[in-house]
Write a structure and sequence with these properties.
Structural class: alpha/beta
Distance between the termini: 49 Å
Order of helices and strands: HEHEHEHHEHHEHE
Strand order of the largest sheet: 3-2-4-5-1-6
Largest sheet: 6 strands, parallel
Helix content: 40-55%
Shape: globular
Number of helices: 8
Number of strands: 6
Radius of gyration: 20 Å
Length: 202
């Protein structure tokens, strides 16, 4: 047992030395452009997890929600009712595209959401902005991908973090981002006839 503990201790010392050497060169601080995409669940959930972190650290933040519309989600209720001072929450969509069935209205809603998003990103008081489901608006060309990428790369304040969620992120956005995470679908109860569950899906 003592031999196992000693080997473990030596291994951890080596790992710590390697880690310390690596971290010595990681000194830059910057606001990140983050993309959560893929077919799997968890893209928005992860983004809202970072919103919670920001609130915990006293970092003012904002959410601009595209597409989902007036769908009553737990995160919207939670943030608007309990943390309205810490996190601004905007809804620009009127609902999923298959529900509205009106492209002109969807485009107008997305354009309005992008206008709000730019205002929040440029606001010096805001440190983190979540653009929830914006990738869907970009996928359907409700927004111009070149305009969005150009704004993020040239006008976003240096220390402001922006997280963009939604499946089918465009290659231009992935190329511009600092951090990209793809959620892969392995198994989902929806395939077995289970509807979206309160507290899990919304």
């Amino acid at each position: 047992m003592e031999d196992i503990d000693a080997r473990h201790n030596e291994k951890m010392k080596r790992i710590k030395a390697q880690r310390d050497a690596l971290m010595k060169h990681k000194t830059e601080e910057k606001g990140l452009i983050m993309v959560h995409t893929g077919d799997g669940k968890g893209k928005s959930s992860s983004g809202f997890g970072m919103i919670m972190r920001c609130i915990g650290h006293g970092m003012p933040c904002a959410v601009v929600q595209f597409i989902k519309g007036n769908w009553q989600t737990g995160e919207k209720t939670f943030l608007r009712e309990r943390f309205a001072d810490e996190c601004r929450f905007f809804v620009s969509g009127e609902g999923f595209t298959w529900e509205t069935q009106d492209r002109a209205r969807d485009v107008a809603a997305a354009q309005n959401g992008w206008k709000i998003a730019q205002e929040q990103i440029l606001d010096p008081k805001i440190q983190f902005v979540l653009l929830d489901e914006i990738n869907i608006a970009l996928r359907y060309d409700y927004l111009d991908i070149d305009e969005v990428v150009e704004f993020l790369l040239t006008q976003k304040p240096k220390m402001t973090h922006v997280c963009l969620t939604g499946r089918d992120a465009k290659p231009e956005l992935i190329e511009a981002a600092d951090l990209v995470t793809e959620m892969n679908l392995i198994k989902h109860p929806f395939r077995d006839g289970v509807k979206a569950q309160l507290g899990v899906e919304y």
